[in-house]
Amino acid sequence: MNILFLFVMIPLLMLAGLWLSKREKAVKAVMVAGSSALLALSVALAVMYLGERSAGNTAEMLFRSDLSWYAPLHIAFSTGVDGISVAMLLLSSVIVFTGTFASWQMKLQTKEYFLWFTLLSMGVFGFFISIDLFTMFMFYEIALIPMYLLIGVWGSGRKEYSAMKLTLMLMGGSAFLLVGILGIYFGSGATTMNVLEIAKLHNIPFSQQLIWFPLTFVGFGVLGALFPFHTWSPDGHASAPTAVSMLHAGVLMKLGGYGCFRVAIFLMPEAAQELGWIFLILTSVSVVYGAFSAIVQTDLKYINAYSSVSHCGLVLFAVLMMTRTAFTGAILQMLSHGLITALFFALIGMIYGRTHTRDIRELGGLMKVMPFLAVCYVIAGLANLGLPGFSGFVAEMTIFVGSFLHTDTFHRALVIIATTSIVITAVYILRLVGKILYGNHVNEHHLELTDATWDERFAVICLVLCIAGLGMAPWWINDMISESMLPVLQFLK
Amino acid sequence: MDYSQFLYMKEELSLVAVIAIILVADFFMSPDAHKKGGKPRLNTFMPILVLTIHTVINLFPGQAGDAFGGMYHYVPMHTIIKSILSIGTLIIFLMAHEWMAREDTAHKQGEFYVLTLSTLLGMYFMISAGHFLMFFIGLETASIPMAALVAFDKYRHNSAEAGAKYILSSLFSSGLLLYGISLIYGTTGTLYFDDIPAGINGNALQIMAFAFFFVGMGFKISLVPFHLWTADVYQGAPTMVTSYLSVVSKSSAAFVLMAVLIKVFAPIIAQWQEVLFWITIASITIANLFAIRQQNLKRFMAFSAISQAGYIMLGVIGGSPEGMTALVYYVLVYLVATLGVFAVIAIIEQKTGKVNMDDYNGLYLTNPKLSVLMTLALFSLAGIPPFAGFFSKFFIFMAAFREGFHLLVFIALVNTVISLYYYLLIVKAMFINKSESPVIAFKSDVYSRIGMLICLAGILLIGIASIFYEVIDQFSFGI
Q1: What is the mean pLDDT of residues A75-85?
Q2: 8-state DSSP, B4
Q3: What residues of chain B lie within 8 A of the CB of A168, using their CB?
Q4: pLDDT, position B32
Q5: DSSP state letter for A3
Q6: Which of A74, A141, A167, A178 has the most B C-beta neighbours within 10 Å, making it the best mutation to test the interface with B?
Q7: Kindly report the CA angle at A437 between A432 and A441, in degrees rounded to 5?
Q8: Distance from A462 to chain B by nearest Cα, in Å?
Q9: Which residues of A touch B466 (CB under 8 A)?
Q10: Is A171 on the interface with B (CB under 8 A)?
């Protein structure tokens, strides 16, 4: 059996285990066992992948297998990974693992919560191992629907509104996407939905590309918070429970960037170059607008959600720049933003669990009350604004350098506009840190609050280590993904 | 006369036998004679048993061929669609147990089974017709007992009213259909499906014939703008009859429409594709918009069924073999999902008399299993993976896309988002909303549970296991 199938099998087993477990302890045992197994599996996969590569295997995708599914329609369950997917699988498993611990205090309907949570992660893992348009789309949608109940039942604030908005907007995106996928399939004349085969044929007529590229790009872009389709993101993230925000901002939004890269640009490079400028403008707006919006928010989660819009916009921005360095930066940014934003949401969830407010006007002086959480919050903030030594710096630096390689005015102007987001990010992060962590306490009751428990500390430390690791030693991940850019770059002039 | 040609119609023969057995058995085993503790056990078990036997022995397709000089035309695909209809009827029989055991219906249990199976027999003949006369007789056999079924709870005002509405609109549509058929006869001089295409040249009378025929079928399938009877009848009819109408009756009519269009009207394909294009858009969109505002779940399901009929038309429009496969597959998936929803609606109505969406608030806390079934069935109807509905929607879109209907597919897809909204409203009621007086926790009877399990298994497995699609694909045909 192919090792990649385990990424779907383990969540399936977890679902079965959760279904059968009666008590809360059993539920948690299943979750810990399952998410640790996934983490171990993705680390093992990374090691095996690097081993194969150093042994001289130069295939586009490794660990390939094709399981014929709907033979009359040429649909197969094709799996395979390259460096980018391995990196994304690593990210996903880290977030699922830490998300499990961040949900440790979940009291309401624990079993159902983790059932949907696991289904969501199954969709994510399935998406990253698939290289077949049909299964990619299927797993993409599997990952979307659990969000509705996760936010609607276990969320906070205007949860029903947010859940419905998020679900409908993302499903609307996937409607665009499905048309795009069918257009790609029939336009290419391929007898398989395998992405690699379609790319190899490389014969989607240019006139058709001009229709299917925008549809596909917008379809994935909605999930990547592309302006003006980003409005689900702040509401959704603000209302979702902690671990769901982590998974959603950390991993699910990366499905958008990954899909744009792997499907839209890989399969329709000519249209991407022709129409890229429209989306470049939109992503630049995302980057700057998201950052500005974050300044004026007063809810901690909204601040971080808008910051996510800004940083995920940077991913799409880099993808559209279509140079090798920019692509590398995009992947690094996906990893970096995934980890940082997950850490942020985890910390916000922990703070909210104690203070029962996320309004920054009602918070203050938390450094004295909960030093561990506060210090980690500072770390997350600094990583987010791109302090050297953390992953954010590496990613953003690579993106801007890669983008500036274009010599024309249009691209360079956009890069300059996008760079301003660094400064704006610094404004809201530093202001936020100063306001809620330092200064005097605002609320008397907050003085009696406790610091993080063991499960919370564990989740947070895992994430901090990953962020610092990526920031200080980016070369190993760089080596892993750099070769995987080549298939996409070969058609780009 | 060659009696071996009767073998082509073994499905009909076996169904006639089933009806005869039930009729006779009902005669001798009326609940009064066999009452044990007030529960007429034998009378539920027996029809289910014989219908199961009928379904199982007719599961495998035979050889294609004609009987009675071409009046009756059999191809293996007919077995597939007939089996799907039988399974649907079987599930409905299982779930009707509780309703049938009720005091006011127990004494006419036999009638329910016989009437239902008679309509099924009519559909069988309609599906395998090779001549418009046979087709029309089948259609009427399917319609008239249906009206009696709709008015089955005749002491209830709603039910009687719905029966009257159904029979009137059904007769009207039959009249139109008949007029269309007569125009066909007038311009081509024959009613044999095989011979008509040679005489079709697309003149104005024939276009009119097609229009009348299509309007007549549109009534049966309840496509917009011929859907106005649907919501009232669905609401008024007993829930089991509603589910029969929305699943079995509609599916057979949709299949027959496709079969006639690609066979008889093949020469004027450009014209009927144009008509179907607009009708499909209207059905999906208008029904979706109406469904959003419904509070009564049976009315809600009526509009949902109209929009689903629009999706089914996506399989018809290309007239291709892929379209037919997608259509039959869609019908199968639609059947299990819709019956799953109706099972829950029926059982809650049976136990508490509640059918409004607000009554479902907080259902998950009291009846988790019913809520889960309902949720999965609704997800399947909305086309969410990994449930069967995703696959059927994907394939039917693919079939229409293959034939070049890109815009149509896009509009249909945008509509799936709207449909997701109103399906989610029910999910929201069950899982998220709180209720002061929730539906009490109860245990359903064994027959209903078997029915629901079949639906659940269908929802979960039909998509994942590709065998269903592949079997259907072997037998499909097109222009």
Answers
A1: 88
A2: G
A3: 417, 420-421
A4: 58
A5: G
A6: A178
A7: 115
A8: 32
A9: 69-71
A10: yes
Q: What is the pLDDT of residues A435-493, one digit of tens each?
A: 888 877 777 777 777 777 788 888 888 888 888 888 888 888 888 888 888 888 888 76
Cβ-Cβ contacts under 8 Å, B473 against chain A: 72
Return the domain boundaries, chain B.
3-475
- Complete DSSP assignment for A282-293: HHHHHHHHHHHH
Contact criterion met (CB < 8 Å) for A182 and B469: no
Say which of A145, A164, A182 has its CB closest to residue B379.
A145
Whether residue A71 lies within 8 A of chain B, CB to CB, comes out as yes
Q: Does A145 touch chain B (CB under 8 A)?
A: yes
Joined together, the tokens standing for residue B361 give 């608030």
Beta strand pairing call for B65-67 and A75-81: unpaired
pLDDT above 80 (res B179): yes
CA atoms within 13 A on the CB side of A412: 5
Is the distance from CB of A300 to CB of A352 less than 8 angstroms? yes
Please check whether residue A69 touches B, CB under 8 A.
yes
**Token code pair at residue A385:** 């604004």
Give B-chain residues touching A186 at CB under 8 angstroms.
401-402
Q: What is the pLDDT of residue B33?
A: 47
The 10 Å CB-count burial string (b at 16+, else e) for B273-282 is bebbbebbbb
Amino acid type, A307: S
Mean pLDDT value of segment B101-118? 83
Distance spanning both ends of chain A, measured CA to CA: 39
| Residue type, position A198, single letter | I
Range of the domain at A392: 3-489
A183 CB within 8 Å of a chain B CB: yes
Estimate to the nearest angstrom the gap between the alpha carbon of A107 and the chain centroid: 27
* CA nearest neighbour of B432 among A163, A170, A353: A163
Whether residue B136 is predicted with pLDDT greater than 90 in this model: the reply is: yes
Separation of alpha carbons A384 and A429, rounded Å: 8
**Segment 317-336 of chain B within 8 Å of chain A by CB:** 322, 325
The residue among A179, A191, A208, A215 with the most chain B CBs within 10 A of its CB, best to mutate, is: A179
Alpha helix segments (H runs only) across A3-109: 6-20, 24-54, 83-102
Query: Which amino acid type is present at position B343?
Result: A
Domain count, chain A: 1
Q: A238 and A157 in contact (C-beta within 8 Å)?
A: yes
A63-88: average pLDDT? 87
* Range in A314-328, B19-33, B84-98, B181-195 with the lowest mean pLDDT: B19-33
Stretch A300-304: mean pLDDT, rounded?
A: 88
Residue A474: asked if its preceding bond is cis (omega within 30°), the reply is no
d(CA A455, CA A98): 9
Mean residue pLDDT across chain B: 88
Q: Output the DSSP codes for B291-314.
A: HHT--BHHHHHHHHHHHHHHHHHH
Indicate if the pLDDT at residue B36 is higher than 50.
Answer: no
Q: Is B105 exposed, middle or buried (0-12, 13-18, 19+ CB in 10 A)?
A: middle
Summary mean pLDDT of chain A = 87
Which residue, among B391, B382, B457, has the nearest Cα to A75 in the 3D structure? B391
| Backbone phi, psi, residue B9, to 5° | -105, 40
- Of the pLDDT bands very low, low, confident and very high (cuts 50, 70, 90), residue B14 is very high
